[in-house]
């Protein structure tokens, strides 16, 4: 089972590297109010609920996972709609969104698939629209290839997903290739997904306690989570959460 679904099974709801804090900063930068917004890969719908709280004109989500689609549609109770589709081929009309928002979903794709998804975001955005991403990054920009490959291998082994984080310069270059103008102010947050303080900040005290209780009672899952935490810790100097705002030129 992929690491994010393992964490979800244990009760974790926030499944992105910079946690809720970076999400809030990216939502502020996106300027949601009165906009038509598409969220790519809403997963368990925590950000979807936050977006709806901010009063968009409309909310549409796209996720490949049928259980996530059902779960989030239930949580939204009609305030928005999530459809099962691939982010590279959403089926949404051209130029129909003011904002496309996506968290922790490009990282797990090959560079080619990342570009296809960015190109799809470009297609569905209106001219002047914003594409906002929150993904796993590598630092510094000049990180050598051998270290990058070692990190990719370690992540693949522990998360069981071919995670391919990029440096902020590489994320920006790919967005530019897809046609976007990338804003200068990249935002960063430490990659602390599995550190106790971040878990409490993301899930609240009762969510963190539920997660801890589940960990105690599920030994196999616990050993996998500890393995993921070890990997993140071992590579913490080179791992970071990255938030970028890109614009479709008018
Ligand atoms: C790590 S979770 C992140 C979920 C959520 N964005 C969050 O930050 O909590 C990755 C999500 O990406 C979705 N996903 C993976 N590949 C996808 C694709 N090709 N198109 C759309 N969604 C995809 C998964 O189903 C899952 O919901």
UniProtKB/TrEMBL annotation:
GO terms for biological process: methylation. It comes from the Bacteria. The keyword Methyltransferase applies. Coiled coil: none annotated. SUPFAM superfamilies: S-adenosyl-L-methionine-dependent methyltransferases (SSF53335). Pathway: Phospholipid metabolism; Lipid metabolism. Gene3D superfamilies: Vaccinia Virus protein VP39 (3.40.50.150). Keywords: Methyltransferase, Transferase. GO terms for molecular function: S-adenosylmethionine-dependent methyltransferase activity. Residues 39-133 form the Methyltransferase type domain. PANTHER family: PHOSPHOETHANOLAMINE METHYLTRANSFERASE, PHOSPHOETHANOLAMINE METHYLTRANSFERASE ISOFORM X1. This is Methyltransferase domain-containing protein. It comes from Leucobacter edaphi.
């Amino acid at each position: 089972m992929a690491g994010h679904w393992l964490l979800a099974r244990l009760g974790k709801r926030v499944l992105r590297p910079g946690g809720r804090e970076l999400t809030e900063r990216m939502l502020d930068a996106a300027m949601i109010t009165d906009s038509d917004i598409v969220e790519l890969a809403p997963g368990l719908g925590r950000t979807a609920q936050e977006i709806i709280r901010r009063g968009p004109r409309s909310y549409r989500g796209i996720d490949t996972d049928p259980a996530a689609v059902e779960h989030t549609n239930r949580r939204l109770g009609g305030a928005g709609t999530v459809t099962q589709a691939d982010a590279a081929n959403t089926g949404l009309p051209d130029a129909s969104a003011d904002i496309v928002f996506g968290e922790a979903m490009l990282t797990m794709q090959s560079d080619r698939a990342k570009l296809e998804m960015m190109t799809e975001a470009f297609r569905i955005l209106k001219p002047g629209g914003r594409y906002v991403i929150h993904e796993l990054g590598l630092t510094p920009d000049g990180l050598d290839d051998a270290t990058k490959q070692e990190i990719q291998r370690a992540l693949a082994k522990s998360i069981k997903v071919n995670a391919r984080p990029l440096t902020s310069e590489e994320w920006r270059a790919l967005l530019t290739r897809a046609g976007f103008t990338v804003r200068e102010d990249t935002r960063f947050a430490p990659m602390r997904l599995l550190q106790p303080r971040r878990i409490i900040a993301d899930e609240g005290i009762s969510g963190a306690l539920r997660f801890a209780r589940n960990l105690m009672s599920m030994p196999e899952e616990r050993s996998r989570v500890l393995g993921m935490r070890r990997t993140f810790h071992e590579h913490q100097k080179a791992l970071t959460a990255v938030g970028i705002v890109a614009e479709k030129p008018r």
